[in-house]
Amino acid sequence: MSNAMSASQPSSRIASLLQARIGTSQVLPHVAKSWDRCLNRYSMEPDAERRTVVLDAASVRARQETMGELLGVARAEMENLYEQIAGSGYAVILSDAEAVVLSAITDPQAKRDFRSAGLWVGAVWSEQNEGTNGLGTAIAERAPVTVYCGEHFRRYNAGLSCCGAPILDVDGGVLAVLDASAASTSDTRLVQSHTMALVSMSANLIARCHFLSRFRDAWVLRFHSRAEFVGLLHEALMAIDEHGCILAVNDAAIVQLGMSTREQLVGRGIDTVLPLDFAALEQRAANEPATLWPMRDIAYGRRFFANARAPQGRRVTASQAAAAPAEAQVAPSRRHVGGDPRMQHNLNCGRQLFGRRVPILLQGATGTGKEVFAKALHRASSWAEKPFVAVNCAAIPEALIESELFGYTRGAFTDAAREGHMGKIRQSSGGTLFLDEIGDMPLALQTRLLRVLEEHEIVPLGGDTAIPVDLHVISASHHDLLAMVQAGTFREDLYYRLNGITLELPPLRERTDKRELIVTLLREERGDGEPPRIDDAAMERLLTHPWPGNIRQLRNVLRTAAALCGERGRIGLEHLGREFELPREHGSSAPAETARGDDAAGPLRTAERDALMHELERMHWNISRTAATLGVSRNTLYRKIRKHRIVLPG
Ligand SMILES: Nc1ncnc2c1ncn2[C@@H]1O[C@H](COP(=O)(O)OP(=O)(O)OP(=O)(O)O)[C@@H](O)[C@H]1O
């Protein structure tokens, strides 16, 4: 048989058996439909060899970013779900609408089984790739599905037991899939149906959070025929604009109102569906914010109980303001992170999730402002009054990280004079713990940190009593942590524990607010004094520079320039340093320093300057500590500071 023929006509004995069973009462309808698609639409072979498609880290990250804040909300719910089914050999998995696994929590005992079953981040579980399965089939059916052992179309997947439920978008499309899968199961169908109920509930909860957050700037009417269900998982949701037009409804609203499609509701005026025009809605929200309003729908006269949520940021009454989530009361601060749209998006998204205690992972090159951003999130949180404690895992010698982080009791070391130490984790309790350069944390300590994050308690070195801690964690790294996980140098479980959501900080050269940043940094440089002005040519050169060292490098260039131009001077090109000189024309003489045989000018020199600046800043401009970490004498360090015309802060 030719290859072309075998590709279009599955020919194996198993294929014929499956075909024969489709439509019989022994096979569940959704399984039969899926087998039919696999055999007749995708021409798949049930007994083909496994060839799991796995996307690379960059593609996975791009998909995770597309999910935006939903990923963080989903992750928090996945952890809840996992806790409920932990110990039963399940993994909780989230995929996007193309069945690409984007997040997973796996039973550590069964990790190997899941890997060999192809269930890991980046794997593509669409029906076209893997046949009938919990993720791909839930997408195709747009409904929760169980796929039990031999119901999997591919023979090699027959050891799996999967429960997948779609997370529906506000327009009713599939946004993602939540799935609980066991790689080798002794569960019965009964146990599986219990798991399915939990998965469906969690998927609904995530979709509901997504609806409320997506329409945070609209009115949302919440209703149900049973008063006690309003505000809970199964409530109907209807988003309404300020003209009283229905923007979106969830599936529960369609069912409650006796409709069969979204189109029957979306776009209509609220007053054509319920006896309530927009003015009445506003008035009721203002006068009776805490009561449920009984009403009957216009089409069928069914009785409902309703309540409305005003657009966030719009306070209808004092009591509503008090009930609004704390994070909504703190405006995102452009002043703190700059006006670049990506940074603003990061701030809005991070603020919402961090306020709900979702751990944040910041990824960005050195000097992009990760710590500044973390502080902005802390400042916007409801625990802003509590401490912000930063730990730079790359700056502390490996031998000291453990005691720095976890603390030690008095007498824990042979040095009897040494007092106990609380440790950074306990210091941050109630406030924010910022774990900078988390990729540099030794593997052994990663395990210990994971335990603290899971158990919310800490045992200091030398101690035997666990102390409870209340942690809100932001971590940061310039390494690609997901790539480190794939390379086995960073613990996967810790990665997911820290990564409620990843926010990517753009490099300075891509930011659209460079002019604003320059003005801010110059103002900061002079404190209360008059900030130096800057001429057009210098500004132009600063705006077009590639800035390999990002904002840190910009700050240092401006600091030097401000010092050189004098108290009332104006920064010009001549104050910016060698790397801002225009390229010399061919045949012109070499730069003076090169001619003298000094260090090479250009990239190497810039790299040395950047490295020096980085270390100095990291050590808070302490010359002895910087010299020690660089492994040079203080005199050498001073010489280099002079050579690079680095100005020490006053
Ligand atoms: N929006 C901003 N406005 C003014 N200064 C900023 C801003 N963002 C960052 N900076 C400055 O840039 C420098 C680097 O910032 P920060 O230490 O937060 O970067 P980082 O990404 O954490 O660096 P590293 O990866 O080296 O730890 C600091 O001097 C900081 O004050």
TrEMBL record:
Q: SMART domains recorded for this chain?
A: AAA
Name the residue ranges with Low complexity bias.
320-332
**CDD domains assigned to the protein according to its UniProt record, in alphabetical order:** AAA, PAS
**Coiled-coil positions:** none
Keyword check for DNA-binding, yes or no. Answer: yes
Where the record annotates domain Sigma-54 factor interaction, the positions are: 336-563
- Can you say what this protein is called? Sigma-54-dependent Fis family transcriptional regulator
User: Can you tell which superkingdom this protein's organism belongs to?
Assistant: Bacteria
Species annotation:
Dyella ginsengisoli
Q: Does the keyword Magnesium apply?
A: no
Show the Pfam families listed in the entry.
Answer: AAA_lid_14 (PF25601), HTH_8 (PF02954), Sigma54_activat (PF00158)
Record SUPFAM superfamilies: GAF domain-like, Homeodomain-like, P-loop containing nucleoside triphosphate hydrolases, PYP-like sensor domain (PAS domain)
UniProt keyword terms in alphabetical order: ATP-binding, DNA-binding, Nucleotide-binding, Transcription, Transcription regulation
InterPro entries reported in the protein's UniProt record:
AAA+_ATPase, AAA_lid_NorR, GAF-like_dom_sf, Homeodomain-like_sf, HTH_Fis, P-loop_NTPase, PAS, PAS-like_dom_sf
Region Disordered: what ranges?
A: 320-342, 582-603
> What PANTHER family does its record include?
TRANSCRIPTIONAL REGULATORY PROTEIN
